[in-house]
Amino acid sequence: MTMHNPPHPGELLRDDVLPALGLSVAAAARELGVTRAALSRVLHGHAGISPKMALRIEHWLGVERGGRAEVWAGMQLDYDLWRERHGKAA
């Protein structure tokens, strides 16, 4: 996937969080309580991290391990604003 400035937060989940936890997409989806397809769309930048997904991540990772919902929602907002400013909105 092409890197963006800032990157889509799904890239961080895909490239850093899942490998650090040793989880497959299917296993992570089960732990998050979402379908594999829904998580895959986020991981590949085809869907954003909704407030509900941000809360799921917070519950899943825990605040002490970087799961704070506001951080994930903020990363999504930063990404969305960057795309709007650069005429790349979907």
Description:
63% of the residues lie in helices and 0% in strands. It has 90 residues and is an all-alpha fold. The protein has one domain (9-85): lambda repressor-like DNA-binding domains (434 Repressor (Amino-terminal Domain), Orthogonal Bundle), CATH 1.10.260.40.
Indicate the topology.
Blueprint: H1 9-21, H2 25-32, H3 36-43, H4 51-61, H5 69-85
Short description:
Helices cover about 65% and strands about 0% of the residues.
- Give the overall shape: globular
Structural class given helices, strands, pairing? Answer: mainly alpha
Mean pLDDT: 94
The beta-strand count equals 0
Q: Calculate the terminal CA-CA distance, rounded to whole Å.
A: 16 Å
Overall number of domains: 1
- Give me the CATH fold name: 434 Repressor (Amino-terminal Domain)
CATH architecture: Orthogonal Bundle
SSE succession: HHHHH
Question: Unreliable stretches, pLDDT < 50, 5 or more residues?
Answer: none
CATH classification class: Mainly Alpha
CATH level-four homologous superfamily name: lambda repressor-like DNA-binding domains
Question: Main β-sheet, in a few words?
Answer: none
Continuous helix count: 5
